[in-house]
Write a structure and sequence with these properties.
The complex is a heterotrimer of chains A (318), B (334) and C (507). Chain A is mainly α and 318 residues long. In chain A, 77% of the residues lie in helices and 3% in strands. Chain B has 334 residues and is an all-alpha fold. Classes of the chains: A mainly alpha (318), B mainly alpha (334), C alpha/beta (507). Chains A and B meet through helix 4, helix 5, helix 10, helix 11 and helix 13 of A and helix 6, helix 12 and helix 14 of B. Chain B: It comes from Planomonospora alba.
Amino acid sequence: MTETVPARGALDRARAVAWLQEYGVYAAVVALFAFNAVFTPHFLAADNFRTQLVQVAPIVIVSLGMALVIGTEGIDLSVGSVMALTASVVALYLGYGALPAIAMALLAGALVGAAGGALVAVVGVQPIVATLALLVGVRGLANVFLPQLREFTNPTLVALGSEAVAGVPIVVAVAAALVAAVAFLVRRTTFGRQLVAIGGNRAASRLSGLPVRRVLLAVYVLSGVLAAVAGVLATSRLQASDPTSLGLFMELSAITAVVVGGTPLSGGRVRVLGTVMGALLMQLLQATLIKHDLPQSWTQMAQAVIILAAVYAARERR
Amino acid sequence: MTAQTARPAPPATTAPTSRERAGRLFQRHGALIVLCALLAAGTFAFDSFTTPANLGNIATASSFLAIIAIGMTFVIVSGGIDLSVGSLFALGGVLAAYGSRHGTLAALALPVAVCGLFGLVQGVIIARTRMAPFIVTLAGLLGARGLMLSLTDEGATTYLVEDEAFAAIGQGTLAGVGHPFLVMLVILAAAAVLLQRTGFGQNVYAIGGNEDAAALMGVPVTRIKIMVYLMSGLLAGLAGALNAARLSSGVTILGIGLELDVIAAVVIGGTLLTGGAGGLGGTIAGALLLGVIQNLINQIPGLSSSFQQVVSGVFLAAVVITHRILSGVRHGTT
Amino acid sequence: MPVTAPVLETDGVLKAFPGVTALDRVSFALGQGEVHALVGENGAGKSTLIKVLTGVYRPDAGQVRYRGEPVAFGSPLEAQRAGITTIYQEVNLVPQMSVARNLFLGREPRGRLGLIDFTAMRERASRVLHGYGIRSDVRRPLGSLGLGAQQMVALARAIEADAQVVIMDEPTSSLQPREVDRLFAAIADLKAQGRSVVYVSHRLEELYRVCDRVTVLRDGRRVHTGPLAELERLRLVSLMLGRDPDQVRTEGLTRFGGRRRPHAAPVLRAGGLRREHVLDGVSLAVRPGEIVGLGGLLGSGRSETAKAIAGALPLDSGRVEVDGEPVPAGSVDAAIRAGISLLPEDRKAEGIVPGLSVRENIVLAALPRLARAGIVSEADVDRVVAAFMRRLRIKAAGPGQRAGELSGGNQQKVLLARWLAMDPKVLLLDEPTRGIDVGAKAEVQALIDELAAGGLAVLLISSDLEELVEGSERVVVLRDGAVAGELSGPDVTEEKIMAAIAGENDD
């Protein structure tokens, strides 16, 4: 038996690393949750729960699109600016009613996504540069459309941001529905399967006759639409359109959620639930530090460490 | 060997096509050409544009971006990217104002040393663990911002510059030209020599062009990479210090999103994000171009300053599209 | 034996990887001032031997000696500093940097203040490269030169760095005839200076033009070393392929069944496939139920022909027809819709998606057919996957296992399943049994036979002559991108294929 010990030790280590890569983010969320349940007063109160979920919902929605893009070995830096653009568009079209305004906002998101997708899939620009140009330009466009913050009282829009159905805030319900829809898209549809295959091996996908360009274009459009949904929800919650600051740094939060959730930047895999957990972990971390009167600067430093740790752990597989 | 002789015989040396030549010209001097065109247009359109005061303003205001972009050029030419520079710029400003209590030297040395160290650590992580520069410096962006906030009681405290000599570095002028611009020119000259005329510079290009080949050709890849991120951190810290001197305080909200402006300036200047090509001349032209665009838009009544972002974004997209089309290279959909 | 003492030698070098012995006690000696050919088919161990010589791999057993001293280079860089340089097929320089900078990287001439003196560098570069027949501006980016000129720059760089041993891996694969002449002149100069060259190539004429001696490797073993001039060309080919021309007529070991003689009209016709440097008017036709072999040495245009037919390689000219209907060129999708399926040569890079499961890999191409309104029918997928896993006897822990974890043979079966699920009319198989173990090889061969018997038209590319002879009804032999011969019926013998490859019928 003694001979097998070193082999088993190595195996156990490999298994531990694999387990950590697969379930590390769930374990971290559970651990942080348990810590708060014990040490943070009122943490388990329904109110607090609701607040946390409402806060994290837009990040989750944007991260879903980001996860899809990263699954194709791309990146989308434009998501925060798309949110800002939707804030402007909503304000501009609110005169026609809430639904037309929302429709126009989603269309705007789709257009920005299509622009990024065309640059990547048709022109062949690197995703990071293509979406960087959009990040800069679209934020500017949002500010040009609506130079300053504009408050609104449209009852439908206000309700969207503040009401709850059966105790669940609409914002959270929409996020949950989108998580389910994206999970379905990735797992059950031709599009989702092709997306992952293209990220996993583009040459093989092309030789297998997959519509590589069309899928890439569609992925960026989806990311734009999801960012637009997040923008509409965040705006309705604010009860004001704020294109200057809405969605600032959202691209960083979303990339963080995706990466911490275990989706590799090298593509070929999309972890939808992992991404949700990644977003939740970051939210919980922030809430924990705030509730324990630790400065906000700690949150950012802790986030930095978590990102590095997550990517370092994922690196071992290759 | 009938098969041998039957093979088509294309010309032995491929002369560059006019399209290739136009592509290369555009990539190298595109930013400069557009800069000149904009300066000419500004002169025609606005009397208040080509005054020494206004041009001096543009030069001084662009200096900080330009200094950081010089460091970023080294990073991007080496095939990497540094997202932490905006945060380091802010951190540098706070540290300079804080250090100015202890004299001019401290005001300069503290930000440069701390931000340089930050860059060094990032470089070591990137070069040794081979983690993606994008992710490492993204963590650096958050970490540096966190550090800066914790130094300023979550941004509540603003340190004022208490050293006259230090403030003069940021505010003074020499023959009508602001000190920051002169500092930038000195750094530019040194950096240009370093990039173009030394073995170090050649190695930076080689790593960005083909890292494996560079290693085979004897380039110390790890060391060069670490140096490049160290430089980028140093210059971001220095730019932050100069800006603090100009504003007489370490402003904490500065630098947010600055890394993207810097990258845009470098890319507009013709340096490819894929690494291995580009130069400092273009980068400076790119930085000045962004400054001129901002200034011109401010001159046009009724146009908000956010229009500048739209123009920058469109311009950046136009640059990469034009380059893709002119270079005629289509490596698939990557 | 060389007249002089060997400058670089290996003594009983053994190198094994999981599942393969890449080098089985190989001894190799390179004399001073000698040009030594190193030949063998894929998997013979040439590249492993080169990697052992240049410090990429460390041998498991045996010794490497340089100038009589045992050495253990830790990296190619160390070997280079000692004077052993490799010129790779894919030029290992920096394409974006100028020619002059590439030539002198790390050894730039310095001027005042220790700064690089570009004027001097350009002048020296121009002078040096003139000697190699390169007259283009040395300030141009290296990548803008032709591949031949690039290779010459790499060679010049090595010689400038005072290399004593230059290893050339397929140096002429992308060169024009004139450039080949220049390269050979440079090799002659090297020889005259007492430097040594290891020359790896599949082009037999070239070997006979420049090389003094030859070492033939096969399956990781050295099978022959000796002066090249004394070795007949046919004998050299037979050594490389492991078939003795005198005793070819033995009963085969492959699992291919008896010959069929289908007479139906060809389902696949390809005509005049042409692409600069690669294909020079290749034409062929395959009938339903027929297996047509495509023979030739590496680099003769076999894989390119298959890729061109499958729409994955843009052509300068040529046409492909399935059932008399023209297939739009340059579109994989159109070729697939016409019923053409390609099993690519490079299983890892172009076939398997390693991170996805066996199940996903099998249905990758067929997904749209297994979906309604874009939603995949899991039941249909399960049915297809189960059917093919059973039919092809794919050994995996289950359909959910990651394809990257499977053995080579099972990965190949997964790819076959991917294409069979498309119900093709024409199956192009590029080296379907390479790098897979004996058992799986026999299974794949039996399967190919069965598919042809079922009416599929099969184009079989193989370096394994036995496989070609026993598997194919007809064999088309390529040489230098053109059809060098077509054999059918009793003419399909290893001897005749080798003769066609060696170019003996038209000399």
